């Protein structure tokens, strides 16, 4: 398929354009009708020439309307008009605003005409490349959108499953036949209200619970009491919860245990659960008393950690 289409009436030479193109060794298709002709073969444009060259017909601005129709169906095709009459500034502005690439006023030099045609071909190919990249980008974005929707759906199902598991765990903990009073928990919090609240919830679930208000004081208690699960605040005087976990988890003289930090700082969860902290789980403090079952269940899940 040639990059150039000459659309002109039979016998028309468009200012010698055919000879100019032949002189440059450039292939072209010749259509014996103007683009304003109702029979103009739009399907021929489906083969995507880069440039259409036709004579400008100023009557009722028919050439402008024909160019608009071409551009609508084939946005990468560039239109160059040839005219033997000098056009007014208003007409030229209209032509370029509607997408014409150029206008050649007869007589014109072969060098000037060829330079204009080469630029039009280059712009058409740039536009084609941009359209291809845009299509690839749209397809990529659509693929990402579908992937995100799939991940969101999977995440929702995972959250639903986790919530169901928490409710089931809490139900089992509160059943009188489910005995876990041999499981020892140490609660560490400098906030007496929070400490008593956690103790009440865990004791009610059947755990044997001890507590302390100091991370420093917790160290000898852990050695002597040998808890299966430690539940501590993050922010405490002396050592914080992470520093305490690093000191007692997996270290000589300390029992194997499941270490849980309870915090109101949701934005610190990634840090708290990073491998170097040795923390097994991080639970956001419930703002609603009805949600305490979730906290108790999450703590109880430490029973399956392998440390208990």
TrEMBL record:
Q: Which residues form the signal peptide?
A: none
Q: What are the entry keywords?
A: Coiled coil, Phosphoprotein
Residues of the Response regulatory domain? 184-300
Gene Ontology biological process: phosphorelay signal transduction system
InterPro entries from the UniProt entry: Bact_response_regulator, CheY-like_superfamily, Sig_transdc_resp-reg_receiver
Coiled-coil boundaries:
134-168
Q: Pfam families under this entry?
A: Response_reg (PF00072)
Could you identify this protein by its name?
Response regulatory domain-containing protein
